[in-house]
Amino acid sequence: MQKVYSRPKYLKDAAFHYCPGCGHSIVHRLVAEVFEEMGIGERAIGVAPAGCAVLAYNYFDCDFVEGAHGRGAAIATGIKRRWPDAVVFSYQGDGDLAAIGTAETIHAAARGENITIIFVNNGIYGMTGGQMAPTTLRGMKATTAPFGREPRREGYNLDITHLVAEIEGTAFAARALITTPKEIKKAKKLIASAFECQLQGRGFSIVELVSACPTNWKLSPLASIKFIEENMAKAYPPGVLVERRLPEAAKE
Asked: Which terminus of the chain has a smaller tally of CB atoms within 10 A, N or C?
């Protein structure tokens, strides 16, 4: 009998603590699969965030450190500069990266730090009870926006990956949806491209994974997938936002 599906080498045999329908477990698996297929798991060093993925180090079988809220890009920068041969990544949610971590993310991109950020955007603060995040859509309800986000009252939602893509130091920025198997396969390819960018020394890379939070959206897992397709994907369209090659002068 041919074995067609098994646990990736760099994903521990541990039960996820995530809510049913949450996309973090899928993203964890994709990253672990990429590590194994690219042969980089032994060189990988991750930075875990504050938020729902705070225990990411319990699931990945590679070196990990815990980061303070929003500091993932800064910590990853320090690790990469100390160990340039390591494959360094920061794993962050939208509250972590697009709120407190805005400065760290933008300036790491501006410096062209040769790190990779795995950014999971579910449009809300998941772990702390569903408060509005910078990525919460217009009209979307949150515990701190009970009548739905109104730009004149709560401001517009922030497309942080698009903003980072405009920065010259960003070598690769892309976005994918964690919805159907077809979209999840696309997500895996983009994650691999981001790590390949780092291996080539081209600079800052980021992949945004638009994912569901059924618990705080107060939707079923299937309805959450539909919400992503009909609403989140319009505000945060998938695809490669930017891909810059290393300047010829820098290769010499």
From this structure: N
Are the C-beta atoms of 117 and 90 separated by less than 8 Å? Answer: yes
Q: Is 26 helix (H, G, I), strand (E, B) or coil?
A: helix
For residue 249, the surrounding DSSP H or E stretch is helix 248-251
Partners of residue 63 on adjacent β-strands? 45
CB-side exposure of 7: number of CA atoms within 13 Å? 11
Tokens describing residue 205: 């890379």
- So what's the pLDDT on residue 3? 81
Q: How far apart are CA 206 and CA 116, in angstroms?
A: 6
pTM over 0.70, yes/no: yes
DSSP β-ladder status, 170-177 and 204-210: parallel
Residue 198 CA to residue 141 CA, distance in Å, equals 37
Q: Do the bridges between strand 170-177 and strand 239-243 make them parallel or antiparallel, or are there none, so unpaired? A: antiparallel
* Residue 167 reports pLDDT greater than 80: yes
What is the torsional sign of CA 210, 211, 215, 221? positive
Residues 6 or more apart whose CB falls under 8 angstroms from that of 159 comprise 135, 235, 236
The candidate with the shortest Cα–Cα distance to 235, out of 108, 123, 98, is: 123
Centre a 10 Å sphere on the Cβ of residue 48 and count the other Cβ atoms it contains.
23
Give the position of tokens 């926006």. Answer: 145
Q: State residue 250's pLDDT score.
A: 58
pLDDT of residue 162: 97
Give the β-pairing of 204-210 and 239-243: unpaired
